[in-house]
Amino acid sequence: MKDATPLINDRKKTEVAPAEPLAQEVDSPLASALAYARRGWPVFPLHTPTASGCSCGKADCGSIGKHPRYHFEHLPQGLKNAGTDEVLIKTWWDLWPEANVAIVTGTASGLVVLDVDSPKGGDESLEDLEKEYGPLPETVEALTGGGGRHLLFQHPGGIIPNKVNLRPGLDIRADGGYIVAPPSVHASGRTYEWEVMHQPEEKVIAPIPAWLLHLIQAGAPQQHTRTTLTVGGDKIPAGQRNSTLTSLAGSMRQKGMSPKAIEAALLEENLQKCEPPLTEAEVQKIAHSVGRYAPRPEASSRPGSVPSAPFRLTELGNAELLIARHGQDLRYCPENKRWLVFNGARWEMDLTSQVYQRAKDTLRSLYKHAGTISDKEKREELVRHILKSESDYQIQAMIKMAGREPGIPI
User: Fold this and answer.
1) 340 and 349 Cβ atoms separated by less than 8 Å
2) What are phi and psi for residue 123, nearest 5 degrees?
3) Which of 157, 202, 251, 307 has its CA 20 to 30 A from that of 228?
4) pLDDT digits (tens, 9 = 90+) for 227-279
5) How far apart are CA 176 and CA 68, in angstroms?
6) Which residues lie below 8 Å from residue 285, measured CB to CB, with a gap of 6+?
7) CA separation for the pair 76, 378 (Å, rounded)
8) What's the DSSP call for residue 231?
């Protein structure tokens, strides 16, 4: 049996000042998780490095101490269950007292994080960028257990994609992502720590520089681009294999690749990265399913607009309008019951309720549309419909029906 004793020898034990709950000296994972939650940063527990590897028990784990824990009742969906509810957070760390702490990035926390992997040339890449665009502003900074740095910036709004290898050794954690946070333990046995002069109590989180935001949104040069759905490594763990390969297949199909070419690429990706690999039949099924659909077409009208043709004031009408506004960037996988969102480069799992946000955006657009209706009776009828549709039940119904619209299921 594997030794599941967490590596906690390097946790620093010093006296804590009560007024600084996130100070460098706080070393309890639970206390830190609660402090992050009080800042409005959703958290969830990760596995922990042990003397023999990872607490997940897999001998060949490729993301030691970096992937989500799961519990059938209290944490059934890992990252998707992240939150700031203190009762739930205490329940998680009652189950796993030494669990590493993850902070969700993106709109949920208001954070975009530049992950500087120093051993992979991140410092040199950042130095080159600063020479070209100017220095980064002073901001909150964490030192990772792997010898790198996490630089925290304010999320500017909208949808900011994760980017792996923006430049060699530089990754971006934003919508749909997370970071391993202090006082988590790295596979090396070292702990993640807040940089002493750049702790959350010492520094204001800086707005993200315009040039960095542009690089994220525009993408890195082709020779540097390598986007993935996994966090903390290239391996794709069980529970993410189908959705990750489906996302990759969708990306290739929208670029016009043939079903046979997609199948060949998926089989190779499966063998190299999935742990354990899916069967060949399962991979072929994914390739066949995605290959049935035509490559992603260009939108026939400006994305985000309200169709000029009349639409029905019903749940179905709402679903059709959602697809008219955002359908070019949305796909639904009935087999996995997961939505995929196109980030400008490839399809990604919707882990941060982006589809829900776009459904709300669709309803809000109708208010502006109502202002253009000269007929008072019709205008008031539309406003009543919008108000009725803004309930969570109606929004969920819109999303459910949208998942069945032509071209959306894969």
Assistant:
1) yes
2) -65, -40
3) 157
4) 333 333 457 777 677 777 877 777 677 666 777 777 877 887 777 777 777 78
5) 13
6) none
7) 45
8) S
Residue 66 identity (one-letter amino acid): K
C-alpha span between 190 and 198 (Å, rounded) = 19
Beta bridge partners of 171: 115
Length of the chain as a residue count: 410
- The single residue listed with the structure tokens 């998780």 is 33
Structure confidence by residue, pLDDT tens digits, 16-48: 333 344 444 446 999 999 999 999 999 999 999
b/e 232-254 (16+ beta carbons within 10 angstroms → b): beebbbeebbbbbbbbbbbbbbb
What distances in angstroms separate CA 85 from CA 22, 166, 271, one per listed residue?
18, 33, 39
- Is residue 322 classed exposed, middle or buried when 0-12, 13-18 and 19+ CB atoms within 10 A define those classes? buried
pTM of the model: 0.52
Give the model's pLDDT for residue 49: 95
User: Which class for 281: exposed (0-12), middle (13-18), buried (19 or more C-beta within 10 A)?
Assistant: exposed
